[in-house]
Amino acid sequence: MELLLSLLLMLPQASTAEEGFINVLVQRFNEGGEFMWPVLISLIIGLAIAFERIITLNLADINTRKFILQVKKALEEGGIQAAEEICAKTRGPVASVFQAGLLRADEGIEAVEKAIVSYGSIEMSFLERGLVWLSLFISLAPMFGFLGTVVGMVQAFDAIEQAGDISPSLVAGGIKVALLTTVFGLITAIILQFFYNYAVSKIDRIVVDMEEASIELIDSLVLMQAGRPLTAAEKAEASKQS
Question: Rounded to two decimals, what is the model's pTM?
C-alpha cells in the first residue's frame, strides 16, 4: 500500500516534468527563428514516410518456412492449381513471386526462373518505395539547420555593427539562437536515420527470404516433374525431432 501511494504521489511530479520539458522545447523552437519550420516539416514528413514503410514491411513479412511447406504440400497433393490458391491467399512479396512462377510452370523451368526474376525485381521496387524521399529529408534537415545558423550569425554581426560595440551578451545571445537550428536539424536527421536503417535491414531480410524461397520453388518443380516426393525431407526431420 505504501509503495502504491508513493507511485501515485510521483505521477503529478512526472507530469509536471514532462510539461516543463515541452515548454522548454517550444521556447527553444521559437528562439531558433524561421528556419526551425523547414526542419520541423522535414521531421513530420520523414516520420510519416518512415511509419508507412515500417507498417508496410511488417505486413509483407511472413513466416517463409511455414509458407514454403504449405506450397510443397499443396503441390504434392493438389498440383499447380492448389499451390496457386495458397499463394493467392497469402500476403507479401514471397507469395507474389511464387504465384508468378507457378503461373508459368506449364512452360518449363526456364520460364519459371525468368518470371521469378522479373517479378522479384518488381516486388523489390515496391519494398523500397519511399526510401528515396526519406533519405532526402535526412539530408535536408541538417542543411536547413546549417543555413539557419549561418543566417543567424549574419544577423548577430549586423546587430553588433549597428550597436557599434561588441557586447558579450549580444554576441552570446546571437550565436545561441543561430546554433539552435543546427541542433534541431541534427536531431531530426538522427531520428530519421534510425528509421531508415531499420527499413533497409527489413527489406534486405525480405529479399533474402524471396531468393531462398524461389530456389526451393524451382527445386520442388523439378522434383515434381521427376515424380519424386517434395516433403519427404521435412517429414523425416519432423519424425526425428519427435
Answer: 0.77
